[in-house]
Design goal:
With 304 residues, this protein is α/β, with parallel strands linked by helices. It contains 13 helices and 8 strands. It has an 8-stranded parallel β-barrel.
């Protein structure tokens, strides 16, 4: 016979599949020129109009970035290339990059500091790029910025999030003072609680930028652990560590079903939850992620 303790300890029921499907309906995905070259035609695996972030890893030739951007644009996707401040020498180089992307039909950008230890030139943070006004003059209609629900040691080397929040406050003010359409796209995490707590702190601080939450697509556990350590994932790393300690699950792919169910459930109960979209990092491969999403979401509808 069940006792009261059984009811206290019972975990909430998973969100209904339809709730998760609706939550990820307008997802985006991140690719690199190298990984994109392995896909014969993105139209076969992505809904029309999907936003595709084009990651600029240090050392990637601009010619490869532009060729991939042109290809994805021609295939009907909303391409959003990275503009890493620390990898751009000066205002003239920034202007050249913006113009080159505009020439292949790009009107969106993810503006971020970049993962380089040292700036290669005049810029070291995203706000410096935004404040040049060059994106606006080139007709870029969306300017997204990076967010870190579990902090960022590059920005707050002693821990905490004072510098990260101050940077987001400046970007939030930039949105209010200009006609830029902005959002925060975040680093991935592996459990919902740190994300929910982070958005609560953002709102308490008066920040209004919408959030596109980063989620790692399905991958082998060893692959997931490698990228999590490289990218500085915070306390939610414990989800993977617990999984690694369970020999019955060690060889199984890690999938994002649980965190998405938790976030979908929170969104349903709290409509003002600022997470508006899900952004997938295909750590286990583009095909593995798009297959998983295709099975989890309803029939594709073209984006507005």
């Amino acid at each position: 016979m069940a006792s009261i303790l059984d009811f206290v300890r019972r975990k909430p029921a998973p969100a209904a599949p339809l709730a998760v499907a609706g939550f990820i309906e307008d997802f985006s995905i991140e690719v690199m020129p190298r990984t994109a070259s392995q896909i014969a035609d993105f139209r076969a695996i992505l809904p029309a109009g999907t936003r595709v972030y084009l990651a600029h890893i240090d050392g990637t030739p601009m010619a490869d970035m532009l060729a991939t951007a042109r290809r994805l644009t021609d295939e009907g996707f909303a391409v959003m290339p990275h503009f890493p401040a620390r990898g751009i020498a000066d205002r003239a180089e920034l202007a050249r990059r913006i113009a080159a992307y505009a020439d292949v039909g790009v009107t969106r950008a993810l503006v971020l500091a970049g993962g380089m230890d040292r700036p290669s030139g005049a810029f070291h943070e995203a706000m410096q790029l935004l404040e040049t006004g060059l994106f606006d003059r080139a007709g870029f209609t969306r300017l997204h910025v990076a967010g870190h629900p579990e902090g960022n040691r590059d920005i707050d080397p002693n821990g905490g999030e004072a510098n990260v929040m101050a940077a987001l406050a400046r970007k939030d003010a930039f949105q209010r003072e200009t006609d830029a359409r902005m959002a925060i796209v975040t680093q991935f995490a592996f459990e919902a609680a740190p994300i929910i707590d982070w958005t609560d702190r953002m709102r308490a601080a008066g920040l209004t930028l919408p959030v596109h939450i980063g989620i790692a697509g399905p991958a082998k556990l060893q692959t997931m652990l490698k990228y999590a350590m490289m990218c500085g994932v915070g306390p939610s790393l414990r989800v993977l560590q617990r999984r690694a300690a369970d020999l019955t699950k060690l060889m199984l792919p890690f999938e994002p079903a649980e965190i998405l169910a938790d976030l979908a459930r929170h969104k349903a109960a709290n409509p003002d939850f600022p997470v508006e979209r899900v952004h997938f990092f295909p750590l286990g491969g583009i095909g593995a992620t798009t297959d998983w999403v295709s099975n989890a979401r309803p029939a594709a509808r073209r984006r507005a």
